[in-house]
Structures are given as C-alpha cells and as structure tokens.
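note to self — DONT lose this again. spent like an hour looking for the file last time. sequence + predicted structure for the chain T wanted, 315 res
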Amino acid sequence: MQRLPARLRHTSPAAFKRSMQISSAELFIFIEGKTDRFFYNKICDAALCSRGTRYQIRLAQELPGQTGGKGEILKFFSYLNRQNALLQDFKGRRIAAFFILDKDIEDLSRTIKKSNHLVYTEHYELENYLYIHGNLIEATAAASTMNHAEIRQKLPNDKHRWRKHVAENWKDWVKLCVFTVIRKINYDSSFSVPSRINNGPYTTVVQQEYDRRLLELEVRSGLTRNGFLRAFRRISEQIDQLYDQGHFDRVFKGKWYSSFLAEDARRIAAGGPLDLASLPDKLALALQLTLNFEDSWAEHFRTPLQQIADSLRVP
C-alpha cells in the first residue's frame, strides 16, 4: 500500500490524468473533502492492504476547477469515462480511478450515476455512518471530557431510537429541504444549514416560520397554488414513508446529529465546564475512532474497491 501526500491542483483534466499515469500509484480514490480522509483511509486500508494495492486518496480540491466538492469530482469522473480512462493501460501497467460520493438525495432526484468505478454512501452522507455504527457513549465521553459513567447512565442506549427521535424532531425541515433541492429552488431552506423552523435541537416547530417559508417556496416554485400543494404533498408523503420504514437516514443529514448529541452533552454537564462551540466537530472525530472498519457495514465500500483492485491484476 502506498499513500502519497496531496498535490497541487492541476490546470486541466488532461494534466491530472497525465499525473496519474506517471505516478507510482495504481489506484486513485477520489473523495469530496479533507475531513473525509481519515474515514476513507481506514476503508481503503481494510479493503486493499491485503492485496498490496498501491493507492492514493485524492481530494476534490486538488482537481481542475475552482469550486471543489462533488461537482468537480463528477466532472472529472465524466471526463475519464469519455476518455475510456477509468481503467487504463499505460506503458505496461494498469491504472484505475474510483470515486466515493455522498448520496445526498440524488436517489430521490434520480440523478445517481451508475458505474463500477463510483459508489455513493447508502445514507445521506458519510457522517450518518458515524452515528449508526459508532459508539455514542465513548465518543461523547472523549469529546466532552465528562465523567464516563454519568454519560453512560444518562445517554440513551438505543442508538436507532435516539436517531429516529432526532430525525423526527426536524422532519418538517427535511421536507422543506427536499422540496427545495428537487424543484431546484434558490432558497435557504436547504441541507447546508440547520433547521430554521426550530429554535435548536429538541424544540418544536415555530409554526409561523414554517408557514412563511412554505409560502415563499410556493412563490419561488412558479407553480399554481393547487400545483404547489400537490407537489409538496407528494414529497411530504415520500418522506413520511421513508421514516415509517426506518430509512430516515437516507434524507436526514448526518452532520445534524452532532448538534443534538452536543445538546445532550450540555444537558448532562448541567452547567459544568463544556466547550459547546467546538463540541459537534469533536464528536464527529471521536466517533470515527470508535468504528470497526472490518465490520459488515463497510462492505458497501470495501467490495467495489476490491473489485476494482482485482481488475488491475487482469492480464
């Protein structure tokens, strides 16, 4: 296994492709952000070390372009696909590219790209895995430096029940966000911010604010009143169905869980010393350290990575 340091952004897709060809690595794994690197390093170690695959993890910000993020990754994926270079032979050796992306709600908007060289998270984003499979008690104790026994006593033991309670609390916000994204409306009812219709975690919806935003979405949608009501009702029913089936993590943004767990920590601390400003980020970092990347949940990533690695050995 070989993991080389990140390099400067190249000026064109062709230049980046050339840098792949002259590199000593044989498998290039593209991810969205630098905060994802540890998680996917562990995935790649679990999947590829035993195969001796020389790989590099490359960030969206290293690719040509100015924006970074998922958009740049998808552009480069499309470029390599058009060039038949997702798996290429170069001077007697094979080179492959593999892309890992947050799903967001692309399954609902039907914009998922299908390829053996690309995998989406099963849930809304990477952070959902932390809260589904991580140890909330251990991570909260590590991130907050509070008494471990007290956290174990006061934090819910049932992770699924806790997550569902959290997701239900902001479900109306999720519906506004999904409608905004699917209808491609330029408005701040979006997944990029916490709920604007709740005054923080574990609070009820401010009905006046919800109604105001719903009216603004109707105006910006360009639909008739009846058309808007029908369109919003369809999405609302779709979200309700996902929640009823226990699939709320498909539409609930994983990063939002940190705000709720930080609020739980504040409640448990009961006025004791606690750095609330940095706690959500610390919780996410601590949760990663509690994951077992050899467990079955990681097969979603490990299996396609291993298949691509095996394709490098085909004569």
